[in-house]
Amino acid sequence: MVALFYILIAIAIAAGIWQLTSIFKLKDVVASDRDNNIQGTLFAVFGVFFYIGMIYCLIKYNVYLLPESASVEGEHYDNLYMITMGLILFVQFVVQFLIFFFTYKYRGSKDRKALFYADSHKLELIWTVTPAVVLTVLIMYGLYTWNNVMDVSDVEDPLIVEVYAKQFSWEARYAGNNNTLGRANVRNIKGINTMGVDMTDPNAADDIPVRELHLPKGRKVIFKFRSQDVIHSAYMPHFRAQMNCVPGMVTQFAFTPKLTTEEMRADAKTIAKVEGINKIRKENGEDPYEFDYLLLCNKICGSSHYNMQMKIVVEEEADFNKWLSTQKTMSELIK
Amino acid sequence: MSDHHKETFITKYVFSYDHKMISKQFLVTGIFMGIIGVFMSMLFRLQIAWPEQSFGLIEAFLGKHQEGGVMSPDMYLALVTIHGTIMVFFVLTAGLSGTFSNLLIPLQIGARDMASGFMNMLSYWLFFLSSIIMVISLFVEAGPAAAGWTIYPPLSALPQAMGGSGMGMTLWLVSMAIFIASSLIGSLNYIVTVLNLRTKGMKMTRLPLTIWAFFITAIIGVVSFPVLLSAALLLIFDRSFGTSFYLSDIFIQGEVLHYEGGSPVLFEHLFWFLGHPEVYIVLLPALGITSEIIATNSRKPIFGYRAMIGSILAIAFLSTIVWGHHMFVSGMNPFLGSVFTFTTLLIAIPSAVKAFNYITTLWKGNLQMNPAMLFSIGLVSTFVSGGLTGLVLGDSALDINVHDTYFVIAHFHLVMGVSAILGMFAGVYHWFPKMYGRMMNKSLGYVHFWGTLIAAYGVFFPMHFLGLAGLPRRYYTNTAFPLFDDLADVNVIITCFAIFGGIVQIVFLANFFISIYRGKKAEQNPWKSNTLEWTTPVEHIHGNWPGEIPEVTRWAYDYSKPGYDEDFVPQNVPLKPGEEES
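YS: structure for the whole thing
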């Protein structure tokens, strides 16, 4: 019934517009000089508001953006990002100006004739070569950064951590004293062996399963990702890190944590963001929020995709080792 | 062809062979699907802005599934999935390309009809059938397909993984398989028609840019759509016959499934082999339409005609070798990521050429601000705004942190969604007199344009910042993360603009349907345009021209040519003695 009500409203609106059309004079169809003037001017006005809007967003929303990278590898990311964004904004501001300004300036008039100007190889060469040169630089720096992040072939003494995804939670497993993960397959999942670790593999005994991720500052961490059901994506935005977790295969990503959780909490940008959030939470009568690194799921994975998270704690290496030694190994858990 | 056989209501309006009627059928079906798609986006925007609140509107339309008018997570995912599917395929592929390729290819190249009228009719009716199936899938008990429009398995393959992956997904796949058949039949017809049925003098280098765009679009479609069909078929096998193309080592709901050896990454490759060219299947026709409309309404030749063709060809070629930029973090070999970064960023060059050529066409023009022109200028603006952020997403290193966030949503909605929709509107306003023999109202067109442009930027510009703040897409609510609490206000603003933008479309619908019946009768060439479609009579006849098909002697862009009193010279006007062809 209510649906019918909305449809009736829609019909009423349509009828209203039908009436309006007679006021708008349906006979009026091709743009006159008056229209050219009005619409050309509106483009100029819109252009001004568009620039105000863009600048407003850039200033006002800056506080919402992520703070500086919490990983060493992310520094290149942030540099490349700044360069690319600078370029994008420069081109956007120039080109949009040209569009709106030309539209305003050359709005039609009966007394004028357009310039017959069909081609200019010189101009075309300029706007083919200029982007080509700029892009070459971007591609080179981009590929350098990409290889820097993705190549883990010559890392000395990395920490190996498996991140394990399932609908709708995360688990993790440290490789233990021998720094080698035991084999695993979903066919071994049984009872508390929720990650399907193969206990016949000698490397598995010292593996340490956990529900909260701790990482040591300054040591390269190589993550091995697995999923037991559908594709998930391990997204750690503060570290500029993301990799899909794909059932049936192991994917990997690596970074070196640079700032401990405590250090990030003391970061000026983080403080500003947290203050903003807590102001809103106070108005809504919610508990205050304290900053923590997070692992989020960033690939649609089902109903509770929106709430699939795990806390990450970055701490000094000594604290990390102390924490890890308090966790039970696989062999202690599965007797 | 020109001999008039007796037409019944059925052969004229339903199972018509006439390309002009088929084009109208595509348009009206596309508009109908567009209404559904846009309305869905308004429903899920309500949920994003005011999560888990009760809305009478939601209860009214989603009924029993959403007791109390609070949207469930599954329904939210279903809405975003079907919104994407409908807008990308049903509105912007069939609705846009189907409408204007059918209308303009025979009319602008000087042909009496498409190469095969029967195949053309078949193409429409398959599209109609697939639309019907897609709409029916919305009413399935466990819910429509909800795994995102990209339907990555295993989520889409396993009914245990989510409700929508049962009957809803089956219907989705069936609907898309039929849709692909429709698209292929249509595309083959377009290609053959352009190659074989051009009138005397219509060399390829005299074709209007619209035809170039439709022609190349059809080729991209023929190259890439079959791959999606095979991807869908293999998914149907995995779902129904127990094969393991995409599935391996799965433990779900307490049991191990038998699948072994398959890879979801294979599906991603196959899907995006179509998925990325699809962007250009959507966008190129809109750009072609824009080229024609900007030239006509600037009263100026399109700047760099040959460079425009070159850039269409370059974009088409590159579009088939960049699909991997959707998969930088899928787990594929990082070296592949490097290759796809390289090819992807190259697309910026022909795109920049197109944008600058449009702007130079405006320069020193005599701009006639018809509604179609406004929409075309709007397209250039959103194409630039959206295209530039491609530099971030196409760069594998930078993609890592914005992949699958709202930054992506902002980027592709501006560059292909909004741009293509603006192009489609431009085309409707411009060729409405050719379709219906009447004119649309200008003032309502202006209201529609400004409302749409303001809403488009209001929705999608702030959205970039959500993505840069790390907010993932396809989240039912952001309240599970206090980290995102400060973004709530931005989402409210976006939703307000979205609802405003949706309501403004009522102005268009009213203008469109009223003008069909009450619009002012059109003149033969209302926009003083050069192309051949304006040499046909206003009243539609089978075979398009009552007598001989006109012969073409020049390109389509002799606007304001020195030596002529009028500021346009139609393509069939012979060259003056000593006049050089441009």
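YS: worth flagging: The helical segments of chain A are 2-23, 33-60, 74-105, 121-150, 261-265, 268-283, 317-325, 330-333.
IM: good catch. Also Residues 74-105 of chain A form the longest helix (32 residues).
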